[in-house]
Amino acid sequence: MGERVGIEVSLAAAEAVKMANVDVIAAYPITPQTHIVEHLSELVADGELDAEFIPVESEHSAMSVCCGSSAVGARTFTCTSSQGLALMNEIVFIAASLRLPIVMILANRSMSGPLSIWNDHTDVMSIRDCGWIQVFTENGQEVFDHVMFAFRVAESASVSLPIIINLDGFVLTHVIEPIEFWDDETVKKYLPDFKPVNQLHPDNPVTMGAFGLPSIFTEAKKAQNEALIQAKPEILKAWKEMGDLVGRHYQPVETYHAEGSETVFLTMGSFGETVSVAVDELRNQGKSVGQIKLRLWRPFPFDEFREAVRGIKRIIVLDRAVSFGGPGGPVASEIRSVLYQEENMPTITNFLCGFAGRDVTAQDYIAMYEQAEQMAQGRVRQEDYIIYGVRE
Amino acid sequence: MIEVRLHGRGGQGAVTSAELLALAAINQGNYAQAFPSFGPERRGAPVVAFCRIDDKPIRTRAAIYQPDMVLVLDPSILRLVKVTSGLKDDGILVTNTKYSGDELKKELGITHPIATVNATKIAMEELGLPITNTTMLGSLLKAREVVPFDSLIAPLKRRFGRIADKNIKVFTRAYQETLLTR
Amino acid sequence: MVKSEEELTWKDLEVGCVVSEAGNASQYKTGDWRSMRPVWDSTKCIRCGVCYIFCPDMAIHKTDEGYFEADLYYCKGCGICAQECITRCITMVEEEE
Q1: What angle do CA C3, A96, C24 make, to 5 degrees?
Q2: Cβ neighbours, 10 Å, residue B98
Q3: What is the CATH number of the domain that holds C51?
Q4: Which of A246, A277, B159, C60 is a Cys-bridge partner for A362, taking CB atoms 3.0 to 4.6 Å apart?
Q5: Which of B23, B40, B63 sits opposite A359 (nearest CB)?
Q6: Environment class of residue C28 by beta-carbon count within 10 Å: exposed (0-12), middle (13-18) or buried (19+)?
Q7: Could you give the angle at which helices B164-177 and B133-143 cross, rounded to 10 degrees?
Q8: Does residue C20 form part of some domain?
């Protein structure tokens, strides 16, 4: 195995991209993603990474460059946050429909306004339906591992889809912690060279991005949806092989003391680790509490999720974004939809918390659990949700 | 788990102190987190940084509200910010100051043990700059050896290159000159 | 292409809807967009090729004798050739006639 080093998660992410031997990086700096692209541009400028770093004038151009470079068969990486993602939005959808295996790290940040640079999940939830594979990470090690995973899955011939690695801005990007690097031999074993399914090449010309008349568009969307659903076997395989190689075993849905528990917290991203601390504390108090962590957001792991919640009475869903005027948080409404047809459907209690950098401690999660228990005494309607800690 | 909160001013290197401490712990095979108070960096403004050290993987991702130790890089902050906020009953305040521990306790009404050192003087004499981040790490370790003294030498060398010797000098001097007032 | 676009199922589509066959736009018949067709009067034609140059669909080609004619599989009947012809030797004739 590789060296265990203390390093800022952003720098480790950039080093992982370098080890994956990326060909083209096109990105525009935006807080809190900045350190990742800064470090990559340094690596290229210093000759440590033989790649093209294309500085662009906007994120819209960054994603456009990525589409071009991926289409000619170059291993392509970009990275953004929040308003940057919003600006590249148009091309994000095109990358998926063209089936271009671009890897993007999204350092999750709120969307303005009020103007904010801090972490929550508003940015990624705004592109839920963009057609990319989407995974969430909890710590620096998971970020490093998932850079390798992302290139491997995205580029495999049976998938050929772009992928977003979500990591929480600041909470992960700006933290120095121990990360076990991979050695070159392991990277080589895990990540084959990129062989594009289709390639723009003068010797064998093809057309990408052609017109789709109403007579063919429905079929095109069905094909795209099937491609995302059918990416799952390759996703599972890539996690399995990573587990065999580096000993860290990832799953679409991961659990912590969930089996046999009456109540579980549902988490995505770095808040999950603090929730685990709260779960330990509550279990010490004799409470029947566990945790479910949703790692794979798209394609949604229906079977694994339903299996994980079997026998559970209440799910406390933590949302880090608001569906304004809607049913609370986007994750909770999705979970309700997934479980709606199930017999013995658990009660969903939806807490919206941690907006734009508002800290949430283990004690806060314990308070949420207690509040959810009290609500269980009365009748909790499906559309009820609580914005935790808001000053009334 | 040991939790340290560091107080400084933007540009004084509080984050670097937290980072060096974490790197020393990680190099020892332990686990650590170092992180700033998240947000835009403003030179001169009072800032805090955090460091957690443990022999097990650390899962808490929130900020530190009940530190075991508080490290103050700039004495002017003592009168600006309530630096002992949340400090555990058995916690220690470690500060750069030209006053004695007793004088500070009296002036600021602090009940916790205080470790004091005139870090600005040491830094001016050795570095020629009032940057006290590496100096105060020596003081912190004197108050409580949260990582072994020697474990910081390698991270200091790596970080400071040709000025590493001077930084090791201030780190060592602060360790020797720190006084603990119970 | 064996199937017309209306017959293709989602499984028939290439990955990312790529058009993998280069130059297959030549299979696309635009001749049926036409309500008038160009007719050359060879007695007036000076074989200058202005019609060939101006044709926006490259539907006009040179004959063995050096005169010009339209490929009616592609000619949309736009009339630009007739408009630009120096000697006015091209007449647009109703398709019905």
Answers
A1: 30
A2: 12
A3: 3.30.70.20
A4: A277
A5: B63
A6: exposed
A7: 40
A8: no
Q: What is the pLDDT of residue A130?
A: 97
User: B83 to chain A, minimum CA–CA distance in Å?
Assistant: 19
A114 upstream amide cis, omega within 30 of 0: yes
Residue boundaries of the structural domains of chain B: 2-181
Q: Give the three-class secondary structure for A261.
A: coil
Q: Which domains, from first to last, does chain A contain? A: 4-246 (3.40.50.970), 253-387 (3.40.50.920)
Structure tokens at B130: 């009032």
Low pLDDT (below 50) residues in chain A: none
| Residue-level pLDDT at A374 | 86
Amino acid at A189: K
pLDDT digits (tens, 9 = 90+) for B70-128: 999 999 999 999 999 999 999 999 999 999 999 999 999 999 999 999 999 999 999 99
Show the tokens assigned to A183: 């050695």
Residue C1: is its pLDDT beyond 60? no
Q: What would the CATH number be for the domain defined by B2-181?
A: 3.40.920.10
Mean local confidence (pLDDT), B137-143: 98
The neighbours of chain B, by the rule of 3 or more Cβ pairs under 8 Å, are: A
Interface test mutation site (partner B, options A33, A175, A280, A365, max chain B beta carbons within 10 A): A175
| pLDDT surpasses 50 at B28 | yes
Q: How many residues does chain A have?
A: 392
Structure tokens at A164: 């977003």
The total number of structural domains that make up chain C: 1
* DSSP states along A311-371: T--EEEEEESS-BTTTTB-HHHHHHHHHHTTSTTPPEEEEEE--GGG----HHHHHHHHHH
More confident of the two residues A129 and C24: A129
With an 8 Å Cβ cutoff, are B62 and A178 in contact? Answer: no
